[in-house]
Design goal:
The chain is of the alpha/beta class. It has a single domain, classed as P-loop containing nucleotide triphosphate hydrolases (Rossmann fold, 3-Layer(aba) Sandwich), CATH 3.40.50. The protein is about 35% helix and about 20% strand. It has helices spanning about 50-55, 85-95, 105, 115-125, 130-140, 150-155, 160-175, 190-210, 220-225, 245-250, 255-260, 325-329; strands spanning about 10-15, 25-35, 40-45, 65-75, 80, 95-100, 180-185, 210-215, 230-235, 235-240, 310, 315-320. The protein has an eight-stranded mixed beta sheet with strand order 6-7-8-3-9-10-12-11, with helices on both faces. Strand 4 (about 65-75) and strand 5 (about 80) form a beta hairpin. The radius of gyration is 21 Å and the shape is globular. The chain binds adenosine-5'-triphosphate (ATP) and magnesium ion. Adenosine-5'-triphosphate binds near residues 24, 48, 49 and 65.
Length: about 325
């Protein structure tokens, strides 16, 4: 349970996309929360439901394309599943901002950066164009951009990928949101730029007390940037805890699999491992543990789906696997 009022609280959330035959069960009882100022990671393979969780948190999934079958989702104590559109418009951008993988798609290619930044700042803050321009310059400078005036005059395609993402981060912070959701914000960038951008993101978040939900398939990024982490698989959280704890003592075989693919976690000379098999079809999930068919430790009791359970009574540290219980009994 959260220790203070969380900025984002998701409880037992299940969502499906209706389909002609079997519905796609994209989220299956997800619970997660983000406390003020925390940097929280959500990690998992492709198709594990990370983006659906992120998009739904801001109610950005196309209405009527999905059905909520259980649970709740609130942002700053407001029910996001029932909030009317006019409230959503206020929440997005003012209370919560989102950064996506490819800033080129979020920026309008035909308009200069300055024009786009000013529009956003003026819309949310109701200040004059001159004040908004000063603010845009300050925001870009905060992102360690050496010549903000020049960037304001540029079109998106004239900037490098890393520079575009810095502009997006500056924009995301422009309304001083309490929560920033970053969905694979640096996946399109090379490793060095990736690190620089994330360090800037974290520095700025710490300065402003902004909470971040960082969505990534990359455990290495989580280990470097997040206070806590949720590991997702087939639309459910299978492990959670403080990042250091999850990294050093992963409980779920899925988390262990993700970690054994990281060069920094493997003894020199040992091969990097990948998890065998494939993510099961979300329209035909097995009734038992959804990871069992790929798991080296699978046993008869995995025919029943394990629930996310506190480890050693620690409510912050949980795993959804029968294995620890087996060892304890
Ligand atoms: N509009 C939709 N209609 C049907 N299925 C969808 C829709 N949007 C997402 N899905 C399915 O929901 C599942 C979860 O998708 P999601 O995009 O959340 O995965 P992800 O964890 O973000 O993966 P990635 O790492 O590839 O971004 C996937 O199987 C996806 O195909
Ligand atoms: Mg995604």
């Amino acid at each position: 349970m959260p220790t203070c009022n969380p900025v984002l609280a998701i409880d037992n959330l299940s969502l499906e996309f209706p389909a002609y035959q079997n519905n796609v069960k994209a989220l299956n009882g997800v619970s997660l929360h983000v406390n003020p100022g925390e940097i929280v990671g959500v990690v998992g393979e492709s198709g594990s439901g990370k983006s659906v969780t992120a998009m739904l948190s801001m109610r950005l999934l196309p209405e009527r394309s999905y059905r909520i079958t259980s649970g709740s989702l609130s942002m700053l104590n407001r029910n996001m599943l029932t909030a009317p559109e006019k409230d959503l418009l206020q929440i997005r951008g003012r209370d919560c901002a989102m950064i996506f993988q490819e800033p080129m798609t979020a920026l309008n290619p035909t308009r200069r950066i300055g024009r786009q930044m000013l529009d956003v700042i003026i819309h949310h803050q109701k200040i004059s164009a001159a004040a908004a321009r000063d603010k845009a310059i300050a925001l870009l400078r905060d992102m360690h951009i050496a010549s903000p005036e020049q960037v304001l005059e540029s079109y998106p395609f004239e900037l490098s990928g890393g520079m575009r993402q810095r502009v997006m981060i500056a924009l995301a912070f422009s309304c001083e949101p309490q929560l920033l959701i970053a969905d694979e914000p640096t996946t399109a960038l090379d490793v060095t730029v990736q690190r620089q951008v994330l360090l800037l993101l974290r520095e700025k978040a710490r300065q402003k007390g902004t909470a971040i939900l960082l969505i990534t398939h990359d455990m290495a990024l989580v280990s470097q940037f997040c206070d806590r982490v949720y590991v997702m698989y087939t639309g459910a959280v299978v492990e959670q805890g403080l990042t250091d704890d999850v990294m050093s003592h992963p409980q779920h075989p899925y988390t262990q699999g993700l970690l054994s693919g990281l060069p920094e976690m493997v003894e020199p000379g040992q091969p990097l491992m990948t998890i065998p098999g494939q993510v099961p079809n979300l329209a035909r999930l097995p009734s038992g543990c959804t990871f069992a068919e790929r798991c080296a430790h699978a046993m008869p009791m995995c025919g029943e789906r394990p629930v996310l359970t506190a480890i050693h009574g620690n409510e912050q540290r949980k795993s959804a696997c029968w294995l620890p219980h087996q060892e304890l009994s």
